[in-house]
Amino acid sequence: MGSRYPSFFAFALAGLLIAGPALAQSTSTSTTAPPDVAAPKTATTSPGHPTSDSDQAFMTGLRRIGVMAGQVVQCAPEKDRQAEIADAMDLADLVAVHFGLAAAFNFSGAVGYGSGKPFDKAGCAEATAGWNAIKQKYLDQ
Asked: How many domains does one find in the chain?
């Protein structure tokens, strides 16, 4: 039994040594690049993820949609609120799959913000119409 431990630790150490350089890589640009070489724009390697140039505008749009969904939760009758929250979480799932957890977190946080912040209920019809258009387009509802 004692002979298994050294082989396990040797295997684990070899795995760490092999994986170490891959884990140490990052997508940030290096400051040691020569000044005459332009650093490429930072882009994620996964398809569907926004580039750094469009990231801020994308996140702002997600937050606006999330706030609108949260307002619809406030506007909905008590019996329909759980269904509206479930629809928002379904959209958050799609956002997580296609754009990552940070985007889904931003969207979900905005839903919570919109559902908790008081607003003029005169805008309920507009918020509901916009949210229904989003649900129809992305959730097939």
From this structure: 1
Q: What is the pLDDT of residue 51?
A: 56
16 domain residue, yes or no: no
**For the whole prediction, is pTM greater than 0.70?**
no
What's at 117, amino acid-wise? Answer: K
3-state secondary structure labels for all residues of 8-53 = HHHHHHHHHHHHHHHHHCCCCCCCCCCCCCCCCCCCCCCCCCCCHH
Helix (H) / strand (E) element for 123: namely none
- pLDDT tens readout for residues 99-133: 999 999 999 999 999 999 998 999 999 999 999 99
Provide the residue range defining the domain that includes 121.
54-138
What single string gives the DSSP state of each residue in 98-116? HH-HHHHHHHHHHHHHHHH
43 occurs within a structural domain: no
Q: Is residue 9 part of a domain?
A: no
